[in-house]
Amino acid sequence: MKTLVCGKGGSGKSTIAALLAKSMARRGYRVLVVDSDESNYGLHRQLGMELPDTLMNFFGGKKEMISKMMKAFPKGEQIKLFERKWGLDDIPEEYLGQKNSISLLAIGKIQDFGEGCACPMGALAKMFLDNLEVKEKEAVIVDTEAGIEHFGRGVEQGCDIILAVLDPTHESLQLSKKILEISQKINKDLYFVLNRVDDDSKEAMLRTRDKDRIAVAVPENKSIFMAGLAGEDIDEHIQEIENLVDLLEAKA
Ligand SMILES: Nc1ncnc2c1ncn2[C@@H]1O[C@H](COP(=O)(O)OP(=O)(O)O)[C@@H](O)[C@H]1O
Ligand SMILES: [Mg+2]
């Protein structure tokens, strides 16, 4: 199963993605985490890894990608990077971060000021996920950039289930309406993961959202917060995350 995690900036997307990955690894899954957020440099630390070289570089870098796209688009063609379907074993090992049974693949990172837009990264994320075949006892978790631009680039198409992380802010609730609308349009299963809630904020959020769609409500957690501050590996066993994995397993 391929699970995509999205939401507003700072809502806890990478945290939830990392916690999910660790829980699934404990359950015996071979896990691939796909970092498709080109401007964030935190996920690898939450997984306790070094940032690997990017898939974009494997395919010749961003300039090369842009030039291929520029050539193909006026002719109405799609660029073709993959000659055949890939499984987890086909990803070149030098481009993976690795710890225990979790691998990390970064699509691309913005390295320099004035590098131009992130479109090639979105295009590559989409092509990679569309082309990736996942076997039983393998799990792919995709961490996305803030907002909903990745929907526009079709990154969700190659995924089976969407988790939208909502922190207790008005902005998150507004964004969740948009995400619901889009996910229905593209016919994908969507669940909300409330994050950093206490009893009061959880109650207030439950009142505004369709209860059936809320998968779990993850409380504010001091150890997660401190690990975030120190840029350290998060290694928390959280019951709500276990419940979330139960739900994903039931959907698989
Ligand atoms: N449940 C939680 N309890 C405490 N701190 C959290 C929780 N979820 C996320 N955080 C903290 O919030 C910050 C933003 O989280 P992050 O996962 O990087 O957000 P995003 O990927 O959505 O931008 C991090 O410092 C992280 O440690
Ligand atoms: Mg993030």
What structural keywords apply?
252 residues, alpha/beta, Rossmann fold, 10 helices, 8 strands, globular, binds adenosine-5'-diphosphate
What would your notes on this structure say?
This protein has 252 residues and is an alpha/beta fold. The chain has one domain (2-251): P-loop containing nucleotide triphosphate hydrolases (Rossmann fold, 3-Layer(aba) Sandwich), CATH 3.40.50. The chain has 10 helices and 8 strands. It has helices at 13-26, 43-46, 55-58, 62-72, 119-131, 149-152, 170-185, 199-208, 222-230, 239-251, and strands at 2-7, 30-35, 97-99, 102-106, 138-143, 161-166, 189-197, 214-219. An 8-stranded mixed β-sheet has the order 3-4-2-5-1-6-7-8, with helices on both faces. Helix 1 (13-26) packs across helix 10 (239-251). The mean pLDDT is 92. The structure holds adenosine-5'-diphosphate and magnesium ion. Magnesium ion binds at residues 13-14, 37, 40, 42-43, 143.
